[in-house]
């Protein structure tokens, strides 16, 4: 059931939606609804979220953990196997970006930690973050100013309590990174060099040239490697959360993960699970996200009955490198678009159309320094009006030394293709960049699933509202990773690990029984379907939307999913079978449908969601979009949680 809740007001409006197979439809508005004994009209996002998503503490005694797991420091993870494929940990962390690693380093002081990562540990959105981390570190700046910029960029849909927490605690999180060895740029006065980006009223962006994420990831990974209580499992793809039903509560007990190298399924039983798996950029054909960003965490959580929020707000970064405009063409297609940092515009970069006309002042008085949604729509409008493939971002009027000092990575990448950014403008085009929506979380990263916490892009904390302010993503990840620590420790200490828990769920099956030709056909068809899905999303659910387009996308994606599943089972696929590309595909389907359902339920244009049918911003509709889990009845293979313990 998809719902819209008013936060921060005693007036509560719900856009209740009737769930069908995959999607939701607005049906009625009511004044209040009782949920687990709590009247929801009393709840704001953050004040009430801990009550709304209350974590019930387990009173059972703590069970000792296998002490032999320290030898698991090797990435194979062989020494803590139980029954051949089960591993027991106090904490399981899914994802190895800034949120997952920062959390792991704190909770490892209190128990054993498994970090489960889909590829190599450094392959995360963090590693690709160029601009930096925003924080109030200058005497002329203030928390109130940072809050105001965040809320304005978020089109006033941000939760004020969440914004205050993040902006207040952010500076300490930066200082912790520096203490851990992260090296950021300093000015001639010896102080941190603070850059400015679009939407910010002050210079407050801490950065390491244009490779900030890479530097943070380096420092955190180095600390993780040296931590004897953290064990990293590379190339382990999380399939589904392991859950059970205790009365009205859903409880998380860990996760099943496919080892992509050995094609074996490992079962991780844990007292606490942190989901820090990133976003879903690859529901679109062009995205700045790495290949691992296929919405796995959001989809797993939705299948596991977690509440999802604000999925209509997909941020398109206005300036990704447009390969078509480069002097030398790339010999092969990119897996992800190369990001041209927000900081280029913040440092004085100017946008021109191919007629060398500066156009952003036509759309906003802040011109190139307007928030990303404004700039992306401005570029999109220019491309459509002029029937052109890209626009130009020019920083060449700045001193050469300054450009190369501030943007060495961007300069080097462009130079590979014959473009000298100190002398020539950069061809750019919008690309999918960041999911402002995700798994709904409280002020301590808690969810409505007991034992499951979220942090980073997979979470929807209320910070970003309808549009994320530049460089607030790494900040949010750091703050919420840290805030989730104490409640996680409390939950871990009051929980026990049942060694028989591994047998509560059926085991996933790798399709070894299928012949080589059949698997090749399945993989070939799945890759084709993936491209079709991405094409539909870009054409109908892009920067500018309409109800007709959204309904068309919904219908076509339902048909595409049904056709794909029918093909799988005709080829011999079975309900309990798992494979990397097939499971990614079902996650992409899930996230695409969540975006469309959320977009259809918002009858206004706000922030990143712009629809020509409701072009104005409506104060009465300043409400987050909340998607409650639908009944699993009549669900498809894609939407069904494969390994949920039956309700007793």
Automatic annotation (TrEMBL):
Ranges where the Fumarate reductase/succinate dehydrogenase flavoprotein-like C-terminal domain occurs: 530-618
Alphabetically ordered keywords of this record: FAD, Flavoprotein, Oxidoreductase, Pyridine nucleotide biosynthesis
GO biological process annotation, one example: NAD+ biosynthetic process
Pathway linked to the protein: Cofactor biosynthesis; NAD(+) biosynthesis; iminoaspartate from L-aspartate (oxidase route): step 1/1
EC number: 1.4.3.16
Domain of life of the organism encoding this protein: Eukaryota
Cellular component terms (Gene Ontology): chloroplast
Keyword Transmembrane helix among UniProt keywords: no
Molecular functions per Gene Ontology: L-aspartate oxidase activity
Subcellular location field: Plastid, Chloroplast
Domain FAD-dependent oxidoreductase 2 FAD-binding as annotated: residue spans: 90-474
Major location category of this protein: plastid
Protein name per its UniProtKB record: L-aspartate oxidase
Lineage: Eukaryota, Viridiplantae, Streptophyta, Embryophyta, Tracheophyta
């Amino acid at each position: 059931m998809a719902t819209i809740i008013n936060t921060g007001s005693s007036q509560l409006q719900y856009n209740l939606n009737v769930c069908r197979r995959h999607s939701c439809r607005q049906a009625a508005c009511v004044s209040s609804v009782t949920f687990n004994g709590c009247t929801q009209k009393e709840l704001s996002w953050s004040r009430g979220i801990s009550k709304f998503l209350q974590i019930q503490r387990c009173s059972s005694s703590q069970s000792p953990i296998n002490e032999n797991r320290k030898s698991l420091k090797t990435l194979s993870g062989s020494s803590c196997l139980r029954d051949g494929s089960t591993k027991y940990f106090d904490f399981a962390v899914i994802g190895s970006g800034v949120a997952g690693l920062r959390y792991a380093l704190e909770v490892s002081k209190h128990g054993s930690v498994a970090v489960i990562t889909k590829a190599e540990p450094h392959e995360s959105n963090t590693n690709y973050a160029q601009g930096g981390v925003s924080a109030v570190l200058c005497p002329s700046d203030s928390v109130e100013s940072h809050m105001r910029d965040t809320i304005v960029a978020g089109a006033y849909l941000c939760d004020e309590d969440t914004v205050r927490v993040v902006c207040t605690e952010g500076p300490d999180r930066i200082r912790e990174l520096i203490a851990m060895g992260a090296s950021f740029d300093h000015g001639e006065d010896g102080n941190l060099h603070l850059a400015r980006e679009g939407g910010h009223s002050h210079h407050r962006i801490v950065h390491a040239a244009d490779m900030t994420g890479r530097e943070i990831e380096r420092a955190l990974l180095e600390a993780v490697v040296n931590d004897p209580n953290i064990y990293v499992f590379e190339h382990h793809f999380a399939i589904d959360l392991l859950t059970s039903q205790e009365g009205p509560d859903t409880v998380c007990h860990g996760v099943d993960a496919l080892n992509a190298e050995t094609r074996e399924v490992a079962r991780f039983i844990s007292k606490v699970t942190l989901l820090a798996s990133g976003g879903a950029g690859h529901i679109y054909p062009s995205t700045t996200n790495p290949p691992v960003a296929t919405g796995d965490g959001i989809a797993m959580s939705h299948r596991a009955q977690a509440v999802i929020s604000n999925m209509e707000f997909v941020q398109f970064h206005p300036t990704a490198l447009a390969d078509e405009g480069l002097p030398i063409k790339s010999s092969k297609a990119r897996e992800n678009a190369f990001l041209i940092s927000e900081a280029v515009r913040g440092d004085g970069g100017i946008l021109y159309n191919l007629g060398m006309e500066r156009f952003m002042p036509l759309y906003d008085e802040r011109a190139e320094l307007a928030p990303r949604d404004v700039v992306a729509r401005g570029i999109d409008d220019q491309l459509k009006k002029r029937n052109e493939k890209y626009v130009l971002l020019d920083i060449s009027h700045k001193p050469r030394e300054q450009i190369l000092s501030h943007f060495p990575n961007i300069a080097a990448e462009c130079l590979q293709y014959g473009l000298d950014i100190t002398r020539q403008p950069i061809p750019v085009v919008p690309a999918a960049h960041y999911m402002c929506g995700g798994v709904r979380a409280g002020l301590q990263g808690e969810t409505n699933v007991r034992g499951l916490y979220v942090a980073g892009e997979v979470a929807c904390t209320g910070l970003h509202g309808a549009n994320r302010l530049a460089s607030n993503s790494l900040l949010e990840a750091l703050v919420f990773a840290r805030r989730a620590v104490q409640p996680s420790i409390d939950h871990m200490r009051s929980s026990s690990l049942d060694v028989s828990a591994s047998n509560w769920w059926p085991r996933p099956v790798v399709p070894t029984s299928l012949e080589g030709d059949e698997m090749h056909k399945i993989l070939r068809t799945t890759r084709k379907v993936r491209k079709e899905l991405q094409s539909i999303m870009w054409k109908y659910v892009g920067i500018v939307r309409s109800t007709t387009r959204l309904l068309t996308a919904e219908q076509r994606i339902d048909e595409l999913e049904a056709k794909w599943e029918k093909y799988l089972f005709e080829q011999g696929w079975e309900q309990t079978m798992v494979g990397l590309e097939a499971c990614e595909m079902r996650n992409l389907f899930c996230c695409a449908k969540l975006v469309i359902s959320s977009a259809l339920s918002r009858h206004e244009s706000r922030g990143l969601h712009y629809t020509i049918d409701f072009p104005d911003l409506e104060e009465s509709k300043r409400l987050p979009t909340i998607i409650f889990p639908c009944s699993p009845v009549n669900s498809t293979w894609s939407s069904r949680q494969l390994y949920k313990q039956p309700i007793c």
